[in-house]
Amino acid sequence: MLSVLIVGSGGREHALAWACQRASGINRVVVVPGNPGIRQAGVETIPVDLADLEAVCRIADQAACSLIVIGPEAPLVGGLADHLRARGHQVLGPSRLAARLEGSKAYAKAVMASCGVPTARFATVSSSQALEAAIDRFQGNVALKADGLAQGKGVWIASDLQDARQAGGRWLGTFGSLVVEERLTGPEISVHALVCGDAVVALPLARDYKRRFDRDLGPNTGGMGAVAPVASSISAADLVDLAIAPVARHLTAQGSPFQGVLYAGLMLTPDGPRVLEYNVRFGDPETEVLLPLLPPDAPEWLMAAATGRLEQAGPLPVATDQAVGVVVVANGYPTAQAPPQPIAFRTQGRGELLFWSGVAGDERHLLAGSGRVATAVGVGPTHAEARAAAYRLAESIHFSGSAYRRDIGTEPQVTSQP
User: Which of 144, 159, 182 represents a domain boundary (last residue)?
Assistant: First the structure.
């Protein structure tokens, strides 16, 4: 029997804990630090400051778990996986060197160029003069991206030349270094894969919704919802071959092989797929809709990736179900802060899954925080049934100022030219 330690405190980690709990070969699941909602769901949690890597390692030593899964990007970029492996643990998560794919947009762009991965034209800037030149080069038709980590909120899509200059000046002062990228058009899609060296196993295609309000209006957020699988004219296997496998081979050749989950955000433009960014871990909220589509023994593939046996594991079986996730947030998210509010919710029904993220209080009296509070997931044989279940569950979560998008999963399926 196996035991699993999951590092993180959000809905992604709750979903990972749920997936591990239902696996017959796992007898213990621990989440650090977790949250009261995860505890309320019957999962063991241990408080810790994730910025204190040594403290996390001590807990891992004491827990003596068979597998450690690292959820958030910051500990990965900080080298937590390296520290844990040095102490003899089996870890699903890349090294600090490999995690630079998410830790630096400029580094990721350089890797894409080396591997021939299609992406938007770009310039990396760290001065006002270079910023002005890049914006003029693309005639203000740009996306501004913070070079480092920004918790999913480090992208500004300029509306025109003046907006690009004003926002660019603000962001350069805040972040110090930016990637100025030619703005692309088309639907976005998320491609996840388990990676161990050159071995790659694809997960179903997903789509997340970054903008705060319906019709993709408002500021970028950490994610307001997700759907999976997504039907596309290009298969998950082909997109993995295009966007992930070349990068995996490149990192292996460079002496920093990737071991974990690599996720590419792509835009399906009229000229074909273009990679927007890489994340070096499971996406959130994509994880909440991907894991319910996998078999109960899916954690065996996580273990295979962590122990160098992924090539022997073969492809992941995937259910024919559909999944839709709706993120419930506090009013004013992602900018305004709100005092904690008591949460009322009901027991989940058939085809419903509830994953907690930004909650405080205790397992008996949950309090909503200021950000993303929960992801309500519906699973069913059709997209319509899954979407209806997700919204039934979202509507049953009540606290002062609760809000969510009403249009998750309403658009047509995505297509792209080959």
Answer: 182
